[in-house]
From TrEMBL:
Protein name in the entry: NADH-cytochrome b5 reductase
Residues holding FAD: R152, P153, Y154, L169, K171, M178, S179, T220
Subcellular location: Mitochondrion outer membrane
Reactions it catalyzes: 2 Fe(III)-[cytochrome b5] + NADH = 2 Fe(II)-[cytochrome b5] + NAD(+) + H(+)
Major subcellular location class: mitochondrion
Listed EC numbers: 1.6.2.2
Domain FAD-binding FR-type: 98-203
InterPro entries: CBR-like, Cbr1-like_FAD-bd_dom, FAD-bd_FR_type, Flavoprot_Pyr_Nucl_cyt_Rdtase, FNR_nucleotide-bd, OxRdtase_FAD/NAD-bd, Riboflavin_synthase-like_b-brl
Keyword annotations: FAD, Flavoprotein, Membrane, Mitochondrion, Mitochondrion outer membrane, NAD, Oxidoreductase, Transmembrane, Transmembrane helix
Domain of life: Eukaryota
Length: 349
């Protein structure tokens, strides 16, 4: 009996099951409003300023002292009113006309043979990145002798609420100028970053069930979405992830994904497939194919579902087709169209 049978009904089982899957191969925020206490302070200061003026007109030394004190109070109140209100988080990246921000490398961690996690320090320790779900950042650097700078988008893997830093998970590609540059960075070096770049606007329970199809570092926007869902106790969305890689070593964030499966077995399932699996591998073999997706994804006729896709061009072409631009999703083709999904049900990161 094929283990593909444990598909959509698997969410009703509390314990994870073994999965063996056969597949085939392919080559800004608005300015903070003044608080009531700040407005009261300004009103009090204005009153004191009026009293100072009255005494000043009388020409006494006391009047001059009162006026000076009044000006001091008004100035302090204005400074307080213009600062960040209590409870409002300062953001390093605010989008719009902000431009690029130079972030310093804080730490570098080698994840595997071609991937590093690079932590960048934000300008202030109590700042958050300014990213939201789902969004990315744009990185920039100009190679020596080049006429134009290199620009590449990345989805950070650190929590959006993290203070003082932002993490990028970067796989180095043989002819990738930006990934090679980021891999050459050491603590103290800097990188130009801009953002956030809005992607899919997520809100709790926006969809009843979502499917995530990822290849390689295409897992990063999926992780951003998954993390937001399971960090929010009000969000009850069910999630199915299908993650394709070359080798077992290439599976990024596997530990974090396994923890979610163990914690939310009725709401989160992850299926892995490898082009070059080891002998003891119990998951899928080959690339992500039609039979696998037909078995594990929410059915296209199911109400209120969404399928997200992100990966290398070859995978995208086979599964959904590539998007034309950040604002143009392009035509839906490939396996998802064959399975009956509509363009409205599919989003390409």
């Amino acid at each position: 009996m094929s283990l593909f049978v444990a598909s959509r009904s698997a969410f009703r089982a509390a314990a994870p099951i073994q999965r063996s899957l056969q597949t085939r191969r392919y080559a800004t925020e608005p300015a903070a409003k003044s608080s009531g206490s700040t407005l009261a302070l300004l009103a009090g200061a204005a009153g004191l300023a009026g009293a100072g003026s009255y005494y000043f007109l009388s020409g006494t030394p006391v009047a001059k002292k009162a006026e000076a004190k009044a000006k001091e109070t008004v100035s302090a109140a204005a400074d307080k009113a213009s600062s960040v209100a209590p409870g409002v988080v300062k953001k390093a990246l605010t989008g719009g006309d902000q431009g690029f921000v130079s972030l310093e490398v804080k730490e570098v961690e080698t994840v595997n043979h071609n991937t590093k996690r690079v932590r960048f320090a934000l300008p202030e320790e109590d700042m958050a990145s300014g990213l939201h779900i789902a969004s990315a950042v744009l990185t920039k650097f100009k190679p020596e002798g080049a006429e134009k700078p290199v620009l590449r988008p990345y989805t950070p893997v650190s929590d959006e609420d993290a203070r003082g830093y932002v993490d990028l998970l970067v796989k180095q590609y043989p002819n990738g100028p930006m990934s090679t540059h980021i891999h050459s960075l050491n603590p103290g070096d800097k990188l130009e970053v801009k953002g956030p770049l809005p992607k899919y606007p997520w809100s709790a329970n926006k969809h009843q069930h979502i499917g995530l199809i990822a290849g390689g570092t295409g897992i990063t926007p999926m992780w951003q979405l998954v993390r937001a869902i399971f960090n929010n106790p009000e969000d009850k969305t069910k999630v199915t992830l299908v993650f394709g890689n070359l080798t077992e070593e290439d599976i990024l964030l596997k530990k974090e994904l396994a923890e979610l499966e163990n914690t939310y077995p009725q709401r989160f399932r992850a299926f892995y497939t490898l082009d070059n699996p080891p002998k003891e591998w119990q998951g899928g073999k080959g690339v992500i194919g039609k039979e696998l997706l037909k078995t594990v994804l929410p059915e296209p006729k199911t109400e209120n579902i969404k399928v997200f896709v992100c990966g290398p061009p070859g995978m995208m072409n086979a599964i959904s087709g590539n998007k034309k631009s950040p604002r143009d999703q392009g035509e839906l083709v490939g396996v998802l169209k064959e399975l009956g999904y509509t363009p409205e049900q599919v989003y390409k990161f």
